UniProtKB/TrEMBL annotation:
This is NAD-binding protein. Residues 165-284 form the 3-hydroxyisobutyrate dehydrogenase-like NAD-binding domain. The lineage of its organism: Bacteria, Bacillati, Bacillota, Bacilli, Bacillales. Residues 307-413 form the PilZ domain. GO terms for molecular function: cyclic-di-GMP binding; NAD binding; NADP binding; oxidoreductase activity. It comes from the Bacteria. It comes from Paenibacillus validus.
Length: 417
């Protein structure tokens, strides 16, 4: 019987090791937090005191860890796997790491006459529990075929992708799409909710149409039920996107959607959502539009009053400078700097008071006070109300990156408290 050393018993690793035990493999487990191993011990696992101890008597060693450095430490550290290996063993890394790390492990372990496969997974926690993971495998194909029964105990589909590093490349490209698809779902839900549509009905339309995706099927219901318990955490989604960004940079390849998705998940991490499910990023959209996305149920009077307060305009008196550019002749503009006052803000735009006459549909550049540490912001005048010699301009902000809107909201909140 093949003996497995399993290192890393987190959200994914623990159910993967449990499935190996249920399929009759002898399993020796190691985890830095020993308490996570107790349930597996009840299923028949032996608990090792170190990665080297888990590897010493094993035929196959599986790692399922968080980051490149954690994997490298588990393999090459003071009590790492390398100190318990012998020729003929196979190490399978199911972590999501950089292709460079995978190739380094392959090369280093080859000097010990040990085979290595990079075999990250997709399917998240439910698939790990049901044994229906998809493995993307890089390395020698004959080694994969030799160890196929081990993979089949944990997954429903095992895909050979090519030489060492190919599994890691596949996973990063795949998770680039996961992150972008998740945000596409949330932006669509946000637009629908802001338009007054029932989010659950909109989700039914999505799932019946061309916009459907696994993210819509898996994360849509979690969002509507406000269930942000982690199946795949926001912080690990961000980690994968950052790794994918480095790969794209190494190819000198523009990846605008990848970089935009990375920025938004970084905002979620800054809000303290890192340990929640990646679907919790909807809370960023909710803050931007001052509306919660959830299944439509009538709220209590207190909840409805709170919603009205969130949608009310905030009265302000913030001095601004405005750059105004006017067309003079072909290829020529003239510009001047005028004074204005930011008097209120809502989710739909801002209003600025000035004694300087401007025209509807004119674009202006808003300069906030130096203390705000904000870049100049472009706005379009969409409404003008005049009171004697004062003009109140309703302005729509144009092409505003989410992180700038966030900084504006934070600054205005500090001035209104």
């Amino acid at each position: 019987m093949t003996t497995i050393g399993f290192i890393g018993l987190g959200t994914m690793g623990k159910p993967m090791a449990a499935n190996l035990l249920k399929k009759g493999f002898e399993v020796v487990v190691y985890n830095r937090s020993v308490d996570k191993a107790q349930d597996l011990a009840a299923l028949g696992a032996e608990i090792a005191a170190s990665p080297a101890g888990a590897a010493r008597g094993a035929d196959v060693v599986i790692t399922m860890l968080s980051t490149d450095q954690v994997v490298l430490d588990a393999v090459f550290g003071e009590n790492g796997i390398v100190h318990g290996l012998r020729p003929g063993q196979t190490v399978i890394d199911c972590s999501t790491v950089s292709p460079e790390t995978s190739r380094k492990l392959y090369d280093e372990l080859a000097t010990h006459l040990v085979d290595f496969l990079d075999a990250p997974v997709t399917g998240s926690q439910p698939a790990a529990e049901s044994g229906t993971l998809v493995f993307m495998v890089g390395g020698q194909e004959e080694v994969l075929e030799q160890r196929r029964p081990v993979f089949e105990a944990m997954g429903a589909k095992i895909m050979y992708m090519g030489p060492s590093g190919s599994g890691s490349y596949t996973k990063l490209a795949h998770n680039t799409m996961v992150g972008i698809n998740a945000l596409a779902l949330m932006e669509g839900l946000s637009i629908a909710a802001k338009a007054g549509l029932a989010p659950e009905q909109f989700l039914d339309v999505v799932q019946a149409g061309a916009a459907n995706s696994r993210q819509a099927e898996m994360k849509g219901p979690k969002i509507l039920q406000r269930d942000f318990s982690s199946q795949f955490s926001l912080q690990w989604m961000l980690k994968d996107l950052l790794l994918a960004g480095k790969v794209a940079d190494s190819f000198q390849m523009p990846a605008p959607m990848l970089h935009s998705a990375t920025d938004i998940f970084q905002m979620g991490l800054a809000r303290g959502l890192g340990e929640h499910d990646l679907s919790s990023i909807i809370q960023c959209y909710e803050e931007w539009m001052h509306l919660q996305v959830q299944a439509t149920t009538k709220g209590t009077p207190e909840q409805e009053a709170a919603e009205r307060r969130r949608n009310a305009r905030v009265r302000l008196n913030i001095k601004l400078h405005l750059s105004v550019y006017q067309w003079e002749q072909e290829g020529s503009f003239s510009g001047q700097l005028i004074e204005g006052t930011l008097v209120d803000l809502s989710e739909s735009g801002i209003r600025i008071l000035s004694s300087f006459p401007l025209a509807r549909d004119m674009f202006i550049v808003i300069h906030f006070p130096q203390e705000a540490d904000l870049p100049p912001v472009t706005a379009r005048i969409i409404r003008i109300d005049q009171d004697q010699d004062q003009f109140l301009y309703g302005c729509m902000l144009s092409g505003l990156p989410p992180y700038v809107r966030l900084k504006i909201e934070e600054y205005i909140r500090s001035k209104s408290e």
